[in-house]
Amino acid sequence: MINLVAHYSLPTPATTNWFVQTAETYFEVEDTNAGEIVLHTTRGFGMGKFTNLDNLDVTVINYDKFITSIQDEQFKSGRQRCDILLNSNDNRYFVLGEIKNRTIINKNSRKSVRKGAKEQLLASLQTILSVPEIVTYINPKIIKRCCYFNKQSASPVILSVITAFNRLPNFYPDGFKMSKPGIEALGFDFYEYTGEQTMTLTN
Amino acid sequence: MKESIHIKNLGPIKDILIEDIKLITVLIGESGSGKSTLMKAIALFRWIYKMHNIRSYLKRSKVSKSPFRFRMDTYFKNCGFDQYLKYSPEIIYTVEFPNNKYTIKFANNKLTGTSDKDLVHLADLQYSKLSFISETRNVIPLWADKGASLSGGYLGFYFHEVYNDFVLASESLKELDVSYLDLKLSVKKVQSEKKYVIQGKTNKYEIDFKNSSSGTQNAIPVSLIAEHFSNHFDFEDAFNRTLLKFLSQTDNITDFKPVKNLGDIQKKLYIHIEEPELSLYPDAQCELISDLISKCFVKNTNEIELIFSTHSPYIINHLNLLIKANDSNKLIDGAKIAFENLAVYQIEDGKVENLIVQNQRIVNTNPLSDTINRIYDQYAQMK
């Protein structure tokens, strides 16, 4: 991230609290209303779900918070950013993640949340891949993904409509690989995780 | 044969490329997103390619004078595309065979790829029939009833296209069982005029088609035309009529030496449907789709390609059931879909997204679940 700051000739971010690390076998990533990234090992508290049975050392960067904390309004103006970057401290994984926070609803927009998520992921990818040092770092990674973690809503218990409309992911726990030519052109795959669908990290 | 289309700057469409139009193509998207524009553009270029095949057949059969000219301004007007011309639309339609490729292009207000040097090779010649079942089909019952008194009336190109196909279909089919609505359509002759009657199967009743429910009025043309084209369409008769029409316009008819018989020419039927689910209850929507798929791809004798647009989350989810049925070697209401033959596209901001999941044999239905999620997100936020 320091390379990103240097590449764009930006001032040093005000925050130093912009990443968390884990090697837990299961963790969930929560994007709190305050814009913090919190990791949970208990099911049901986070939006992005990961199994990590090989206990890979993983760093989760709060990319949104990092960019937001940079004191350069011109750089930030109109610059879309995804929520997290996830990096395994080996040559396996580099993941950009957009976590849908259901508690924030943009009432002014009827546009698909999925679409906004994909745009943020692509824009973030373009920003970081403009930094030669980051490209050099990412290139050897075996699995490069942009992921949209789409938390399911809940309806009143007496109604089954939400669970009925969202049953499909229950049959396929590993997430959906979707075509997204703009992301694929940059050497990344696009995955969508809904409800209990979980990204599996292995060595 | 592989068919592709690339469209730029055509009304709501900014840049859409479909590299391989599958046997079954389904389009979803918000109102005004460009679903109908895309479907009409595909239908138009399929029709131009059909006419290019007819011209190629006649030319190769020694009819030197071209029997018709392509008039893009008229076609664009029929499609409602004329107001898009100022934005410099570009459409490239390609049909590819193992040894040859045919490209028809509209750009800079000019059509290319249909001249004598572009003639379709003998081995690739194809005779096709197109049907476009527009959302205006709900006027059919009234028009059929009042048609005689409305002669000379014009309700737009696409209405008359679907009306003509409906009439053609009802020539060959005097009865149609519509089990998903528990009724039957009968075509009766009353004093030399056709009368369309709906009969209830469980609840015995009989009413005129024009007095039936809006769901019935929308669904029956879909099922009738699909049944006609999939099992009763007479290619030979249609081909002969086409030849006769164009040969009668040429002076040197004696020069005509048919280069190939119809039996040796590839035949294809294309059906395009705007929102098959119109006015139907969710269960009936799914059963209509099963009926349509069964007619076109299970019980069919003619080779069919189908495109339809929809706003229905039920239909998109039902497609997954039909894929699973095929994979399990079963039928759902007589229908199944081979995963490889299906494409589902979401049209948004003038572009398409392929909703086929690449690591599973399913369609991603999440985009059509967003609304219900959003409703209960807002519900949960209220104290």
What does the model show?
The complex is a heterodimer of chains A (203) and B (383). Chain A has one domain. Helices cover 26% and strands 27% of the residues of chain A. Chain A contains 8 helices and 11 strands. A 7-stranded mixed beta sheet of chain A has the order 1-5-6-7-8-10-9. A 4-stranded mixed beta sheet of chain A has the order 3-2-4-11, with no helix packed on it. The two termini of chain A are 24 Å apart. The mean pLDDT of chain A is 90. Chain B is α/β, with parallel strands linked by helices and 383 residues long. Chain B has one domain (2-136, 234-381). Chain B has helices spanning 35-60, 72-79, 140-146, 157-172, 214-232, 235-247, 282-298, 313-327, 370-381, and strands spanning 2-10, 13-18, 24-29, 90-96, 101-107, 110-112, 126-133, 175-178, 183-190, 193-200, 206-208, 266-274, 304-309, 342-348, 351-354. In chain B, strand 1 and strand 2 (13-18) form a beta hairpin. In chain B, the strands form 3 sheets. Chain B has a 6-stranded mixed beta sheet with strand order 7-12-13-3-14-15, sandwiched between helices. In chain B, strands 2-1-4-5-6 form a 5-stranded antiparallel beta sheet, with helices on one face. Chain B has 9 helices and 15 strands. The interface between A and B is medium-sized, with 29 and 29 residues.
